[in-house]
Specification:
The chain is mainly α. It has 7 helices and 3 strands.
């Protein structure tokens, strides 16, 4: 995240990262999981947390936690094996690698995190409010 923001500041392109339903992407057309053909944009949202082009700022926490709650809501809908294989790691990665790291680096405040987590639980981002979005996204992966 820091590298993307520094690059935007140095090049005068602040805000150039594209918003995605999970956070931001520094290159959603040619990034690590992008399809890389004829300007097609990456739709591989299940891979955002693993992607080196993924960026989260304080403004993105609501999106991120909406995704977090959607994944947790899927636990009762999928088999234990599918949960463990495809989804169980996502809340842990968000809590450990995004939130904790962001707090340590002072990218977000605890108040921002708590407010975004609760807002997302009560009022999820429209992309993650649907009941079948995880199944639909897995068909793209």
């Amino acid at each position: 995240m820091g590298m993307c923001l520094v690059q935007e500041l140095l090049s005068g392109t602040l805000g150039a990262t594209e918003r995605t339903p999970v956070g931001r992407c520094s290159d959603n057309k040619h990034g690590e999981f992008a399809p890389k053909h004829a300007g097609a944009m990456c739709q591989s949202f299940m891979n955002c947390l693993r992607c080196r082009n993924y960026v989260v700022t304080g403004d993105d926490l609501w999106r991120l936690f909406s995704f977090y709650w959607r994944v947790l809501n899927e636990r009762g809908r999928v088999s234990k094996r599918r949960w463990e294989r495809h989804l169980a790691h996502i809340p842990r990665v968000i809590d450990r690698d995004v939130v904790q790291d962001g707090l340590v680096r002072k990218v977000f405040t605890k108040e921002q995190v708590d407010a975004a987590r609760e807002r997302a639980r009560r009022e999820p981002h429209p992309f993650w409010a649907g009941e079948t979005i995880i199944g639909e996204l897995e068909s793209f992966a």
